[in-house]
Amino acid sequence: MRADGFVLDNGFISYNQLETVLYTFPNVYEAAVSNFRAEDQVLKVYISLENVLSAKEKQDFCEEIEGYIRKTFAISIPISVLIRDKLPITKTGKILRSLLA
Question: What is the pTM of this model?
Answer without folding.
Answer: 0.81
